[in-house]
Write a structure and sequence with these properties.
Strand content: 25-35%
Number of strands: 31
Structural class: alpha+beta
Number of helices: 14
Distance between the termini: 40 Å
CATH architecture of the largest domain: 3-Layer(aba) Sandwich
Bound molecules: guanosine-5',3'-tetraphosphate
Helix content: 25-40%
CATH class of the largest domain: Alpha Beta
Strand order of the largest sheet: 27-24-26-25-29-30-28-31
Number of domains: 3
CATH topology of the largest domain: Rossmann fold
Largest sheet: 8 strands, antiparallel
Length: 526
């Protein structure tokens, strides 16, 4: 059987801070990809989707999208798989894990704000994996800071090089187009009459064309030429390898709202972004061209329907050709399972699929067999080493009002931790270990309480702890204990017995790093 997909794959995720325009850009990518015909409906549908279970009631109460996952469409001969990274109140470990399943990332910046906290956090995960990062500077229809200044701020903040592929053109009437540095062209955007609901018209003029001055005016033309000269002489040179190892980010300018610059971005992004990358695994790295079917679970969507304990496990395919109904082996248990009724996600609709290829993500119905980071393959001998557990940022003590249900609580916490819904640690005390839960987003806690009550019959309360930072620590146990002093630090153990130290603030962390010379501090679980 030939082992090449019919269309090349591009599997990526968008990293951004809330409000930078991720929803708007996603929608415009779908518009350009022909997956929707009129923009302006995704947000409205957010609330109306899947209103069929208690789980969704939680989703609706909070006005968030817990269930969004993968969007697929074809564009310019590519199959585009856009992995949705929950970013608002629903920011959680799933957001990190989704990045692990992607082959590249698009960093979306607001032109006035540059790199913000959430973007920086997500960028760190991409950097850990040396993932290619493409930058889209959004909201250029509004005056922002100077683009050259933005570039130096991003470079200084993230320690990454920036190569502007397009460059914004502002005239007295506002943001009118972008220069395409590679093609030495200017792209002028037509004024839409429907506020970006449909595709924007684009006129292309060679940069050297004398009529440019008449069209955009003497001042804008001079500024543009001066700035492009500066970029050509003082900026980074294009370097394929640096782009692919994530040290040079191609940057694009535009406005997702008015569609300006979206198409040139999508076009070049699809060309430069890598297809499915080799994946770290034992006994050896898995190549997308390998014949054997392999994949790993990066997210589990629980309780789509609580009556059936129905869950969807999202599987990233890493090699081989997937066929619906195929039997695979779960490496963790050595047991086989049949992958029946796999789902894919076209625009916002779910459909059943017959086949899938490396880079694709499929949803598998699961009755509690699969866990986050499980490896599946035909022979069962491949184990992906890719999904780390990241240090949580919120911590709380779990308190149940019914001590007789402590066993149920422990079972619930163990299962929910295995599923990846929350991280569970234990604090040693005279009365026995006290469970402490950790999360990277507050929603994880709401979901935890909801599920402990609904699925395990253990109503609980959480008592928030004042810690914001954590590091797993390896080394002499007495030395670790010596770091725990006063109220600004706490030592816990995870399910594997590894020590983790919690810190109230940066100062407490820094102090421990200095004092704990000889110990190893890790941001991801050992
Ligand atoms: P998010 O998913 O990253 O949180 O951002 P979202 O797309 O929801 O956009 C956040 C706000 O920024 C929205 O305005 C949106 O219209 C606006 N926005 C997105 N792209 C652009 C752009 O290119 N230019 C400008 N000027 N604004 C943009 P809002 O007022 O909060 O919501 P809405 O009433 O417009 O829906």
């Amino acid at each position: 059987m030939p082992n090449t997909p019919p269309t090349p794959r591009r599997t990526f995720a968008i990293i951004s801070h809330p409000d930078a325009g991720k929803t708007t850009l996603t929608e415009k990518l779908l518009l350009y990809g022909g997956a929707i015909h009129l923009a302006g409906s995704v947000k409205a549908r957010r609330a109306a989707r899947h209103a069929t279970s208690d789980w969704m009631a939680l989703e609706q109460q909070r006005g968030i999208s817990v269930t969004s996952s993968v969007l697929q469409f074809e564009y310019l001969g590519y199959q585009v798989n856009l992995l949705d990274t929950p970013g608002h109140a629903d920011f959680s470990e799933d957001t990190y894990r989704t990045l692990i399943a992607a082959d590249s990332a698009v960093m979306l910046l607001d032109n006035r704000r540059g790199v913000e906290a959430r973007t920086r956090q997500l960028y760190e995960v991409c950097k850990l994996r040396r993932m290619p990062i493409f930058t889209f500077v959004n909201k250029c229809d509004r005056p922002g800071g100077h683009s050259l200044e933005l570039i130096s701020n991003v470079e200084a903040d993230l320690g990454i090089g920036i190569y502007p592929v397009t460059w914004p053109i502002h005239t007295s009437t506002g943001f009118v187009g972008v220069a395409d540095r590679r093609r030495r062209e200017v792209l002028l955007f037509g004024k839409g009459i429907d506020h970006g609901a449909t595709l924007v018209t684009t006129r292309r003029i060679p940069l050297a064309d004398p009529s440019l001055v008449e069209i955009i005016g003497e001042d804008a033309a001079t500024t543009l030429r001066d700035e492009l000269d500066l970029l050509d002489h003082a900026g980074h040179a294009w370097d394929d390898e640096a782009v692919l190892n994530g040290t040079l980010s191609p940057m694009f300018f535009g406005s997702a709202l008015s569609n300006f610059g979206v198409e040139p971005f999508l076009h070049d992004f699809l060309e430069f972004a890598p297809g499915p990358l080799p994946r770290a695994a034992v006994p050896h790295e898995v190549l997308p061209t390998d014949d054997e079917f392999t994949g790993f679970v990066f997210k589990i969507q629980a309780n789509m329907d609580p009556k059936h304990r129905d869950r969807i496990a999202f599987l990233r395919i890493c090699s081989g050709h997937f066929l619906a109904g195929m039997t695979v082996t779960l490496a963790r248990t050595g047991k086989t399972l049949r992958l029946a009724q796999p789902q894919q996600f076209l625009a916002r609709e779910r459909v059943e699929v017959d086949e899938a290829w490396p880079g694709d993500v499929i949803g598998i119905h699961d009755r509690g067999t699969l866990r986050v980071s499980d490896s599946l393959s035909v022979r069962g001998d491949v184990v992906f080493t890719g999904i780390p557990r990241f240090a949580p940022q919120y911590f709380a003590r779990v308190i149940t009002s019914d001590p007789l249900r402590r066993k149920h609580l422990d079972t619930g916490l163990r299962q929910l931790a295995e599923e990846g819904a929350v991280q569970v640690f234990y604090q040693e005390s005279i009365a026995g270990p006290v469970p402490i839960v950790g999360a990277v987003g507050m929603l994880q806690f709401d979901v935890l309480l909801f599920r402990l009550d609904n699925e395990y019959g253990v109503p609980c309360k959480l008592e928030p702890l004042p810690f914001k930072l954590a590091r797993w620590v390896r080394g002499d146990s007495n030395l670790i204990d010596a770091l725990v002093e006063g109220r600004s630090r706490m030592r816990l153990f995870d399910a594997k017995g590894s020590s983790i130290l919690l810190f109230e603030d940066e100062w407490a962390l820094r102090h421990s790093l200095e004092k704990g010379a000889g110990l190893e501090f890790l941001e991801v679980a050992p």
